[in-house]
Amino acid sequence: MSVELDVFVGNTTIMDKEVYQLWLNGYTVNDAVKVRIEGGVMEECEASAEVLLSDTMDQYRTFQMCERLLHHPAKLANQLLFQIPPDRQAMLIERYYAFDDSFVREVLGKKLSKGTKKDLDDVSTKTGITLKSCRRQFDNFKRVFKVVEELKGPLVENIRQHFLLPDQLARDYAAIVFFANNRFETGKKKLQYLTFQDFAFCAGQLINNWTLGAVGKTNNMMEDMDVDLDKEFLQDLKDLKILITDKDLLDQHKSLVCNALRGKTNVFNEMEANFKNLSRGLVNIAAKLINAKDVRDFFIDLVEKFIEPCRSDKWTSIDMNLYLTHYTNSAHILDTFKHHAVWTRYMGVIKSCILRMYHD
Amino acid sequence: MPGRLKAKIVAGRHLPVMDRASDLTDAFVEVKFGNTTFKTDVYPKSLNPQWNSEWFKFEVDDEDLQDEPLQITVLDHDTYSANDAIGKVYIDIDPLLCSEAATVISGWLPIYDTIHGIRGEINVLVKVDLFNDLNRFRQSSCGVKFFCTTSIPRCYRAIMVHGFVEELVVNEDPEYQWIDRIRTPRASNEARQRLIFLMSGELQRKIGLKVLEMGGNAVVGYLQCFDLEGESGLVVRAIGTACTLEKISTFPATATHPNNSSPSKDMKEPGFGEEAPGVPLSSGPPTPLRAQTFSSFSPSKSYSRQSSSSDTELSLTPKTGMGSGGSAGKEAGPLKALLKQQTQSALEQREYPFFTLTIFPPGFLLHVGGVVSARSVKLLDRIHNPALGNTRSYKLLDWNSFTADEPETRDAWWEEIRQEIKSHAKALGCHAVVGYSESTSICEEVCILSASGTAAILSSRFMQDGPLDTEHRFEEVVSPGCGFCHIPYDELNIPFPAQLTYCYCCRRYKVPDVLFTTIDLPTEANVTGKGCLIQARLCRTKKKAQGEGNAMAISNLLPFLEYELHTQLMNKLKLRGMNALFGLRIQISVGETMLLGLASATGVYLTALPSPGGIQIAGKTPSDITYEQHISNMQKKINDTITKNKEQYEINPPEVVEEIIGSPIPEPRQRSRLFRSHSESSDEVSEIDLSHGKKDAFVLEIDDTDAVEDIHALLTDSPTPAGFYSCNTEIMPGIQNWTSAIQMFTSVRVFRLNANLTNQGLNKIFSDLCENLLKSLYFKLRSMVPCCLCHLNFTVAIPEDELIQVAVTAVAMSFDKEQTLENGKRSGEKTLIKAITENDEQLQFNLELNAESSSPNPLGSPKGLSEVGSHPSARDRCSSWIEQLKLKAHTIRRGSVKTTSSMEKASPLPEGRSRSLRSNRSYSGSSVAVVKMTPLSFIPGAKIIKYLGIINMFFIRETSSLREEGGVSGFLHTFIAEVFAMVRAHVAALGGNAVVSYSMKECVFMENPNKNQAQCLINVSGDAVIFVRESELELTSVQPQSATTQTSNGGEGT
């Protein structure tokens, strides 16, 4: 004796948020039933395990049928098969495209290729996220990447419109796309302490300030305007080298910063001693960004060349802020330094990125 | 050439990829009607083609217009090989043929393929130009309106109810034709779908002709069914009730129509003036529904079951049941005789005084006798085998016109059954059968034909020809709250054993102790507490057999099956402390090795009927003490259950107040007083109660295994979880504050049995199957609590040996709990007011206006309470009504200009409560309009303003990659969702936003997992409508009660 067939179809498609989450998390039906039983839904509704199993299977089936629509969220709104209220549609999409920070940290900056996908079982073991869920998240990244790759116009806006995602989630996806496109290295041990949100913040800074679309140089609609860094700008960054190659300029710069900071910080001595090293570090990063290879190492360089020395000298974030502010501003006072615009554009991003990244 | 059909193909979207090389499709469309085909250009390389074709024009006969569907085929152009079909759309253009229904079909319709399911959508425009005038047009039965709704549709008024219409057409089933061996499954499925479309159209046209002959203009309660008889053919049959309906459009005008006026002014009868013209006492203010009756008339009711054989050569079916034999209760009281005389004339002319209605205009249903049913077992023989001299059926295209003299046609089979039903009704002293329906169950060559209905006495009000004259309008004075319970038969000549008592409402007429009916609970009925779904389930094994032996075995089993079902129903009814069943539907399904019986009904406590006695268990020869103990334990369990049930369903019957005949009615309010004692109220029974003391403590002897089983079945029914109610009728007594949250659903389960089960084992499995299904439904719908599952319609089938299939379609409706309590307190038993059909209230309002205009001083005479109470509010209602009309007109105008979804936006009314399942808002930013579906004839909190035509769709889906589609569950889940989607799309294309009276009449599922194949046929029907929300109107009214009435009065004017 067995139930051979068991379906429930509502005119309005019934979807339980909790079961949806379990499905998204890659639980098998049986595991999901266990979780639900532990959640106490049975006592609440006088149901039996049998009922729960039937309901869970039914919901899973519904989600599977919906999944193909979720791949193109715009279709969800004008398909006829499921009658789903708009708020539910939004929930379905948002949750489907939601991802685990621990997962995204593993693949951030990696090429979204088949090779990476093959390694997902390692990621799964490492993060404790089910392989099924990992695959879904990876496929989402890839799908978004592929779609926006071919679109013109602002990245975040494209993602939001095409995938009907809420603003924050769209920004996160923009960061993922941006990282994947530029292949930023994020996996090194030294970068492990950084969260996805740290990187997403930095990505936002870079997109908003260093890409073609950032300064309105383009006639608005251009392919990859938000995804690729502004080559011209990167070229110009080489000019900043004068700050470290010109000995006078370097000394002048140092004395300006030191004068401004004297007495305002506990780590003044360390700062004074390290100034030249730190300045060389930042300017060298700038000068090398024209090489794609060095772009990838952007974050690791920031950490190695700047954050780590400061941290070993026990700077506080306030010290850091103070230093970077004066370091940036002082350069403008230097007589022979002419590249004010490039310097501002460069240091603006560097400063906010470092401040964000400067934590334990 | 009376019509020109025009179609325009606008665009497609979401088409499947047909060319793998390019990942695109070169689509074009063929538009076919009859034998004419047009093609669009090929729109190359696109999944969203924009054809924007010219108007394709078909000049066609009216007959074809009715019979044929418009067939749209989307194809992929292929230069080198044959064009590949993407899918088809069949469009029923019938709704366009009626001036009052839809005028254009326009919208996105799913492109359907029987193998692949929905494959994208196509946007089409279809119109019909009628050249000739209406008269000419009517000659061809076009323009006759069809309604699935089994009541007078809201926004119409019944001028006349003509009666029963039936028709059947037969054809060869394409699946069984020789050509099927060489054609693809797709071709075969499409041939079948198309044929059934044609047959349905033909059937509808023929029924339409009959209606016109009778002088009607509409069919209400239209029920169309398919019999898939396999090799012997495909039968499409339909029954319905012919009516003359009038659209309630020019409301003030008809209200002052003099013809309708002059209610009698019998001083003694407070409610008389209103009641007689069919206006119930349920007018606006909290009028007591339980009015006093004066005329002498005997109470009524009973349950009669008959299973009878056709008198074919075999006489395969036995006579069974408790129905009476020949002696009819004709010699009833003198008054009754008079009453009969009046309606007789109207009914006598009819071959079958049957009505498929289950809800009636007020004043139409006078008395209810009880359930009448008939079954017969038939053998379907080969059609193409004249060598068999003894063929019992012949295949012809139309039985009626060509084989009227052929005795053994299917028509004749049904005729026998109908005759039998008619005679059963007569035996119950009734001249009519209401809530009538017919069904079949086929297994191989055996076919069980069943018919059932409720014997009743009807008022002649809607049945006489010509203008109604006033004298004949009031046959009788019956209080609407209990009148229908009074027995129609002669108490000295009861056709079956029944205990009669005096009516507990009026104390004047006899009522039975229990009442079983197939109709819906009359809106004006006095009910105590709430109702609930009651099911009797039974499984009986039978030996495998062939031919006549098999038929014989089945007909021998039937009476036992029915008897046990009846016993179960009775026990369960008593266990719930209730005394009446409504909407009773007994389904018998036949398989090769078993018979299934499922009886569903809604139990209620009718205030007019005596309180049911408890259930008493008696053991066999009380010998040892443990046994005694066991018995008393069981007895205690049963008693506890009864008490619990009474609490759950709030059954606290009013204390019976001793009264002298003719004394004023006790205030209805008293009824809300608590009466906790669960023991029967016999100690309060007044002296005129002729029944004896502790009557009918129902005794169950458990000296045989069957009874033990019965008791088991009784106690294993798990109670509905808190916050849930269930019924299989349109409305639930005791619940009225529906919110707008409704959720229609279909659930199907198939259960595989082990071989070699005993009857008991089978019973348990079957019962558990149904119980578990219900439990699952409650769990699924828990977010809607407090809610009621209405119109729970179970269908069982035995798709193959060892498989049981149960399908349920119902609607879950949320209600507002607090308000229920409040209202319950305020107006004791007026629990049903809200649910009263708008139509009723329409009529009622009408008449109130009449009274005012025709009798200038209606208040001058000392009228009864109710009338005095109702008049002022009638005026109020009138004025607010006109305002509402204006409002509505406004909304509608806007609605008709824009699309449906924008129309919904045009009235963004505040909803009662926010619920996640709510689906009535249009999707923002989406092109898909929300379409509600419900098996009920109404939508809570909304007004149906237009009926757009009948939806009757038949789909076949087949797969040869069952596993890949998620197994049988995945396959069927998708298919049902697709069917819903197609129904919604077609309704939206007609300009509608809801389907009412929706039902899934057929769901035939076959699988062959070894071959990785499955096939399913689904037939659904319903009425496409436009509704508007009424919540804004509710907000304006002050008094809750009058608000209810007001709002349900509004809106029809357009």
Automatic annotation (TrEMBL), chain A:
InterPro entries: FIBP. GO terms for biological process: platelet aggregation. It comes from the Eukaryota. One of its GO terms (cellular component) is nucleus. GO terms for molecular function: fibroblast growth factor binding. This is Fibroblast growth factor (acidic) intracellular binding protein a. The lineage of its organism: Eukaryota, Metazoa, Chordata, Craniata, Vertebrata.
TrEMBL record, chain B:
It is found in: Cell membrane; Cell projection, Ruffle; Cytoplasm, Cell cortex; Cytoplasmic vesicle membrane. Residues 1-109 form the C2 domain. PROSITE patterns: C2. Signal peptide: none annotated. PANTHER family: C2 DOMAIN-CONTAINING PROTEIN 5. CDD domains: C2_KIAA0528-like (cd08688). Pfam families: C2, YbjQ_2, YbjQ_3, YbjQ_4. InterPro entries: C2_C2CD5, C2_dom, C2_domain_sf, C2CD5, C2CD5_C, C2CD5_YbjQ-like_dom, C2CD5_YbjQ-rel_dom. Residues 295-310 have a biased composition (Low complexity). It comes from the Eukaryota. Transmembrane segments: none annotated. Residues 253-332, 852-874, 893-920 are annotated as: Disordered. GO terms for biological process: insulin receptor signaling pathway; intracellular protein transmembrane transport; positive regulation of D-glucose transmembrane transport; positive regulation of protein targeting to membrane; positive regulation of vesicle fusion; protein localization to plasma membrane. GO terms for molecular function: calcium ion binding; calcium-dependent phospholipid binding. GO terms for cellular component: cell cortex; cytoplasmic vesicle membrane; plasma membrane; ruffle. This is C2 domain-containing protein 5. Residues 253-264 have a biased composition (Polar residues).
